[in-house]
Design goal:
With 256 residues, this protein is an alpha/beta fold. The protein has helices at residues 25-28, 46-58, 84-104, 116-124, 126-139, 152-160, 191-204, 231-244; strands spanning 4-11, 34-38, 62-66, 109-112, 145-147, 164-169, 206-208, 214-216, 221-223, 248-249. Helix 2 crosses helix 3, helix 5 crosses helix 6 and helix 7 (191-204) packs parallel to helix 8 (231-244). The radius of gyration is 17 Å and the shape is globular.
């Protein structure tokens, strides 16, 4: 049984006048404890990044960078074949861009969380994860990386002693291997479905897979994506149910 948990969501995933999801970032921000702000490669632009940073600071929400593949058309949910060095440089570029907006507003970069297929790629590719986390150590050895327990990213972070935060996904389906079932577009979820799923994970440490199997999960942070249909109501319902069951929403436990 968890007495407290981080609730995170991706923010700033629009581009100029184009809105991704329901366009409710400003309403979601007060409900979460940490956010992952897009940094221009899969979504966002300088004006959106700056707005997202200011709104996070206003609401006392921890700020993380959310780098993705260079894939605006595919929203970062397509696999792009590139050398690990190239992908690491793309991540550093995006981290640096967002960090300056955080600095100018007097905030602090809290974490690093890859987006979409870059997250999946890191979770399966040891060479990329090793080079990425090695680079993060040179940039900031105290900057946590968000990842799922049981992935290569998680194992490399532990091996290299980079801080990490383990995630659970309330609005994504799980396979029997304990990993996410990757899709280009998430299916529709009801607020009660997501809230009950997260409550079960917090109270029992389990989740039901797409085959109906119940597996164990452990985590420090719950993610509900802002681009999932009805995201605001999913997050509201989840937070309400957790708090009704004595589970506090707060910044995550960071493992060293």
């Amino acid at each position: 049984m968890k007495n407290n948990v981080d609730l995170n969501s991706d923010m700033g995933e629009c581009f100029g006048p184009w809105i991704i999801g329901d366009g409710v970032d400003d309403e979601i921000m007060p409900l979460i404890s940490s956010c992952n702000i897009a940094a221009g490669f899969h979504a966002s632009d300088p004006n959106i990044m700056h707005h997202s940073v200011k709104h996070a600071i206003k609401n006392n929400v921890e700020i993380g960078v959310h780098p993705g593949f260079r894939d605006l058309v595919g929203f970062g949910r397509r696999l792009i074949i590139a050398k690990p060095e190239e992908l690491v440089n793309d991540c550093i570029y995006q981290l640096g861009a967002l960090r300056e907006f955080v600095n100018i507003e007097g905030g602090k970069m809290h974490h690093f969380k890859p987006h979409g297929y870059l997250y999946i790629h890191a979770s399966k590719d040891r060479n990329f994860s090793y080079q990425l986390i090695s680079a993060l150590q040179k940039i900031d050895k105290n900057l946590p990386i968000y990842c799922m327990q049981g992935t290569i990213t998680y194992e490399v972070a532990k091996e290299l002693k980079q801080p990490y935060v383990r995630e659970f996904y309330g609005d994504r389906d799980y396979g029997d291997d304990g990993q996410l079932v990757m899709v280009r577009r998430a299916r529709a979820y009801t607020p009660d479905e997501v809230a009950q799923k997260v409550l079960q994970a917090c109270k029992e440490g389990t989740v039901q897979t797409v085959t109906g199997k119940t597996i164990e999960v452990d985590f420090d942070s719950v993610c509900i994506h802002s681009d999932t249909a009805g995201a605001l109501e999913l997050i509201r319902a989840t937070r309400k149910l957790l708090e009704e069951n004595g589970i506090t929403i707060q910044k995550p436990i960071i493992h060293q």
